[in-house]
Amino acid sequence: xxxYLVIINHRTWIAMIIxxxxxxxxxxxxxxxxxxxxxxxxxxxxxxVFTIRxxxxxxxxxxxxxxxxxxxxxTFSYFLMSNEKLTEEDQEEATKLMLNxxxxxxxxxxxxxxxxxxxxxxxxDLYQYVNSxxxxxxxxxxxxxxRIMKDLHETIENVHAINTHRTPISLKAYCLIFxxxxxxxxxxxxxxxxxxxxGSWITYFIVLVSQFILISLYNIQNQLEYPFDDEGxxxxxxxxxxxxx
Length: 245
Fold this sequence. Notes:
The chain is mainly α. Helix content is 75%, strand content 0%.
Protein backbone atom coordinates (compact mmCIF):
# COMPACT_ATOMS: atom_id res chain seq x y z
CA UNK A 1 0.00 0.00 0.00
CA UNK A 2 2.90 2.32 0.76
CA UNK A 3 3.99 2.36 -2.87
CA TYR A 4 0.63 3.87 -3.88
CA LEU A 5 0.80 6.59 -1.23
CA VAL A 6 4.27 7.82 -2.18
CA ILE A 7 2.80 10.34 -4.63
CA ILE A 8 0.84 12.04 -1.82
CA ASN A 9 2.65 14.93 -0.13
CA HIS A 10 2.06 18.48 1.10
CA ARG A 11 1.26 19.70 -2.43
CA THR A 12 -1.54 17.13 -2.61
CA TRP A 13 -3.17 18.47 0.55
CA ILE A 14 -2.86 22.08 -0.61
CA ALA A 15 -4.49 21.18 -3.95
CA MET A 16 -7.30 19.25 -2.23
CA ILE A 17 -8.04 22.12 0.16
CA ILE A 18 -8.25 24.53 -2.78
CA UNK A 19 -10.52 22.05 -4.59
CA UNK A 20 -12.88 22.07 -1.58
CA UNK A 21 -12.84 25.79 -0.82
CA UNK A 22 -13.42 27.06 -4.37
CA UNK A 23 -16.66 25.10 -5.08
CA UNK A 24 -17.94 26.08 -1.63
CA UNK A 25 -17.41 29.78 -2.40
CA UNK A 26 -18.85 29.36 -5.90
CA UNK A 27 -22.05 27.84 -4.50
CA UNK A 28 -22.32 30.40 -1.71
CA UNK A 29 -21.92 33.44 -3.97
CA UNK A 30 -23.67 31.92 -7.02
CA UNK A 31 -20.59 32.08 -9.24
CA UNK A 32 -20.92 30.16 -12.47
CA UNK A 33 -19.84 30.60 -16.08
CA UNK A 34 -19.25 28.50 -19.16
CA UNK A 35 -15.62 28.40 -20.27
CA UNK A 36 -14.07 26.28 -23.01
CA UNK A 37 -12.13 23.58 -21.15
CA UNK A 38 -9.74 23.12 -24.08
CA UNK A 39 -7.80 25.94 -22.46
CA UNK A 40 -7.07 23.59 -19.55
CA UNK A 41 -5.31 21.12 -21.81
CA UNK A 42 -3.20 23.91 -23.31
CA UNK A 43 -2.37 25.54 -19.98
CA UNK A 44 -1.80 22.43 -17.84
CA UNK A 45 -1.99 19.04 -19.58
CA UNK A 46 0.39 19.75 -22.47
CA UNK A 47 3.21 21.23 -20.32
CA UNK A 48 2.72 18.49 -17.71
CA VAL A 49 2.98 15.69 -20.27
CA PHE A 50 6.01 17.40 -21.80
CA THR A 51 7.84 17.53 -18.46
CA ILE A 52 6.93 13.91 -17.61
CA ARG A 53 8.28 12.68 -20.94
CA UNK A 54 11.43 14.76 -20.47
CA UNK A 55 12.02 13.33 -16.99
CA UNK A 56 11.43 9.78 -18.21
CA UNK A 57 13.95 10.23 -21.03
CA UNK A 58 16.52 11.55 -18.55
CA UNK A 59 15.95 8.47 -16.39
CA UNK A 60 16.48 6.16 -19.38
CA UNK A 61 19.69 7.97 -20.35
CA UNK A 62 20.90 7.71 -16.75
CA UNK A 63 20.36 3.93 -16.84
CA UNK A 64 22.32 3.75 -20.07
CA UNK A 65 25.27 5.74 -18.71
CA UNK A 66 25.33 3.82 -15.41
CA UNK A 67 25.47 0.55 -17.34
CA UNK A 68 28.35 1.95 -19.39
CA UNK A 69 30.09 3.06 -16.20
CA UNK A 70 30.01 -0.40 -14.66
CA UNK A 71 31.00 -2.18 -17.88
CA UNK A 72 33.89 0.24 -18.45
CA UNK A 73 35.12 -0.15 -14.89
CA UNK A 74 34.90 -3.94 -15.20
CA THR A 75 36.90 -3.77 -18.44
CA PHE A 76 39.53 -1.71 -16.64
CA SER A 77 39.60 -4.39 -13.95
CA TYR A 78 39.93 -7.27 -16.42
CA PHE A 79 42.75 -5.50 -18.22
CA LEU A 80 44.73 -5.10 -15.00
CA MET A 81 43.97 -8.58 -13.68
CA SER A 82 45.23 -10.14 -16.90
CA ASN A 83 48.63 -8.48 -16.45
CA GLU A 84 50.89 -11.25 -15.12
CA LYS A 85 53.52 -8.76 -13.97
CA LEU A 86 51.20 -7.27 -11.36
CA THR A 87 51.50 -8.98 -7.99
CA GLU A 88 48.54 -10.03 -5.90
CA GLU A 89 49.08 -6.96 -3.71
CA ASP A 90 49.04 -4.72 -6.81
CA GLN A 91 45.76 -6.26 -7.97
CA GLU A 92 44.20 -5.87 -4.52
CA GLU A 93 45.24 -2.21 -4.49
CA ALA A 94 43.65 -1.68 -7.91
CA THR A 95 40.46 -3.43 -6.80
CA LYS A 96 40.25 -1.19 -3.73
CA LEU A 97 40.67 1.93 -5.87
CA MET A 98 37.92 0.82 -8.25
CA LEU A 99 35.60 0.02 -5.35
CA ASN A 100 36.24 3.47 -3.90
CA UNK A 101 35.37 5.08 -7.23
CA UNK A 102 32.21 3.02 -7.64
CA UNK A 103 31.00 3.69 -4.08
CA UNK A 104 31.85 7.39 -4.27
CA UNK A 105 29.81 7.84 -7.45
CA UNK A 106 26.79 6.04 -5.99
CA UNK A 107 26.91 8.14 -2.80
CA UNK A 108 27.33 11.28 -4.90
CA UNK A 109 24.24 10.50 -6.99
CA UNK A 110 22.08 9.40 -4.06
CA UNK A 111 22.83 12.60 -2.12
CA UNK A 112 22.24 14.84 -5.18
CA UNK A 113 25.60 16.53 -4.69
CA UNK A 114 26.82 19.05 -7.27
CA UNK A 115 30.44 19.10 -6.13
CA UNK A 116 32.48 16.40 -7.91
CA UNK A 117 35.66 16.84 -5.89
CA UNK A 118 35.48 13.37 -4.32
CA UNK A 119 34.87 11.64 -7.67
CA UNK A 120 37.72 13.56 -9.31
CA UNK A 121 39.99 12.52 -6.46
CA UNK A 122 39.11 8.84 -6.95
CA UNK A 123 39.81 9.11 -10.68
CA UNK A 124 43.13 10.79 -9.88
CA ASP A 125 43.97 7.84 -7.62
CA LEU A 126 43.46 5.46 -10.54
CA TYR A 127 45.63 7.63 -12.79
CA GLN A 128 48.41 7.74 -10.23
CA TYR A 129 48.17 3.98 -9.74
CA VAL A 130 48.68 3.31 -13.47
CA ASN A 131 51.60 5.77 -13.60
CA SER A 132 53.24 4.23 -10.55
CA UNK A 133 53.45 0.80 -12.22
CA UNK A 134 55.69 1.81 -15.10
CA UNK A 135 57.92 -1.21 -14.57
CA UNK A 136 54.95 -3.60 -14.75
CA UNK A 137 52.62 -1.92 -17.24
CA UNK A 138 53.99 -1.38 -20.73
CA UNK A 139 53.53 1.88 -22.62
CA UNK A 140 51.11 0.22 -25.01
CA UNK A 141 49.05 -1.22 -22.15
CA UNK A 142 49.12 2.13 -20.36
CA UNK A 143 47.78 3.83 -23.47
CA UNK A 144 44.88 1.36 -23.58
CA UNK A 145 44.19 1.88 -19.89
CA UNK A 146 44.07 5.65 -20.36
CA ARG A 147 41.65 5.15 -23.24
CA ILE A 148 39.42 3.11 -20.94
CA MET A 149 39.72 5.82 -18.28
CA LYS A 150 38.64 8.38 -20.85
CA ASP A 151 35.44 6.37 -21.44
CA LEU A 152 35.03 6.09 -17.67
CA HIS A 153 35.34 9.86 -17.29
CA GLU A 154 32.75 10.37 -20.01
CA THR A 155 30.15 8.12 -18.38
CA ILE A 156 30.68 9.82 -15.01
CA GLU A 157 30.30 13.30 -16.51
CA ASN A 158 27.18 12.24 -18.40
CA VAL A 159 25.43 10.82 -15.36
CA HIS A 160 26.50 13.81 -13.26
CA ALA A 161 25.08 16.19 -15.88
CA ILE A 162 21.77 14.31 -15.83
CA ASN A 163 21.68 14.55 -12.03
CA THR A 164 22.49 18.27 -12.03
CA HIS A 165 20.55 19.68 -15.00
CA ARG A 166 16.86 18.92 -14.76
CA THR A 167 13.59 19.88 -16.41
CA PRO A 168 13.36 23.70 -16.66
CA ILE A 169 12.37 25.02 -13.24
CA SER A 170 10.24 27.80 -14.74
CA LEU A 171 8.11 25.25 -16.62
CA LYS A 172 7.57 23.18 -13.46
CA ALA A 173 6.62 26.31 -11.50
CA TYR A 174 4.21 27.29 -14.27
CA CYS A 175 2.52 23.87 -14.14
CA LEU A 176 2.17 23.94 -10.36
CA ILE A 177 0.67 27.45 -10.31
CA PHE A 178 -1.93 26.54 -12.93
CA UNK A 179 -2.81 23.31 -11.09
CA UNK A 180 -3.50 25.36 -7.95
CA UNK A 181 -5.71 27.87 -9.80
CA UNK A 182 -7.40 25.15 -11.88
CA UNK A 183 -10.49 24.90 -9.58
CA UNK A 184 -11.09 28.66 -10.00
CA UNK A 185 -11.87 27.99 -13.65
CA UNK A 186 -13.20 24.46 -13.45
CA UNK A 187 -15.62 24.63 -10.50
CA UNK A 188 -17.85 27.47 -11.85
CA UNK A 189 -17.87 25.77 -15.27
CA UNK A 190 -18.97 22.44 -13.79
CA UNK A 191 -21.65 24.20 -11.73
CA UNK A 192 -22.95 25.87 -14.89
CA UNK A 193 -22.98 22.66 -16.92
CA UNK A 194 -24.36 20.34 -14.23
CA UNK A 195 -26.70 22.93 -12.76
CA UNK A 196 -26.57 24.44 -9.25
CA UNK A 197 -29.75 22.58 -8.27
CA UNK A 198 -28.61 19.08 -9.37
CA GLY A 199 -26.67 18.28 -6.22
CA SER A 200 -23.50 20.01 -5.09
CA TRP A 201 -21.79 16.67 -4.36
CA ILE A 202 -21.42 16.06 -8.11
CA THR A 203 -19.43 19.27 -8.52
CA TYR A 204 -17.28 18.54 -5.47
CA PHE A 205 -16.58 15.01 -6.71
CA ILE A 206 -15.60 16.06 -10.23
CA VAL A 207 -13.38 18.94 -9.08
CA LEU A 208 -11.67 16.88 -6.35
CA VAL A 209 -10.95 13.92 -8.65
CA SER A 210 -9.67 16.15 -11.46
CA GLN A 211 -7.46 18.12 -9.08
CA PHE A 212 -6.11 14.92 -7.50
CA ILE A 213 -5.19 13.51 -10.93
CA LEU A 214 -3.35 16.68 -11.94
CA ILE A 215 -1.38 17.09 -8.72
CA SER A 216 -0.55 13.36 -8.67
CA LEU A 217 0.87 13.59 -12.19
CA TYR A 218 2.92 16.59 -11.09
CA ASN A 219 4.24 14.65 -8.07
CA ILE A 220 5.15 11.68 -10.27
CA GLN A 221 7.06 13.99 -12.59
CA ASN A 222 8.81 15.60 -9.64
CA GLN A 223 9.94 12.19 -8.36
CA LEU A 224 11.24 11.25 -11.81
CA GLU A 225 13.32 14.42 -11.65
CA TYR A 226 15.36 12.83 -8.86
CA PRO A 227 15.87 9.23 -10.04
CA PHE A 228 18.80 8.53 -7.69
CA ASP A 229 17.47 9.42 -4.21
CA ASP A 230 15.64 6.09 -3.74
CA GLU A 231 12.40 7.76 -2.63
CA GLY A 232 10.07 7.29 -5.61
CA UNK A 233 8.61 4.07 -6.98
CA UNK A 234 10.51 4.43 -10.26
CA UNK A 235 13.89 5.45 -8.86
CA UNK A 236 17.02 3.79 -10.18
CA UNK A 237 18.42 1.04 -7.95
CA UNK A 238 21.99 2.31 -7.72
CA UNK A 239 23.26 -0.77 -5.89
CA UNK A 240 22.71 -2.72 -9.11
CA UNK A 241 25.47 -0.69 -10.77
CA UNK A 242 28.15 -1.08 -8.12
CA UNK A 243 31.18 -2.96 -9.36
CA UNK A 244 30.94 -5.37 -6.41
CA UNK A 245 27.22 -6.10 -6.69
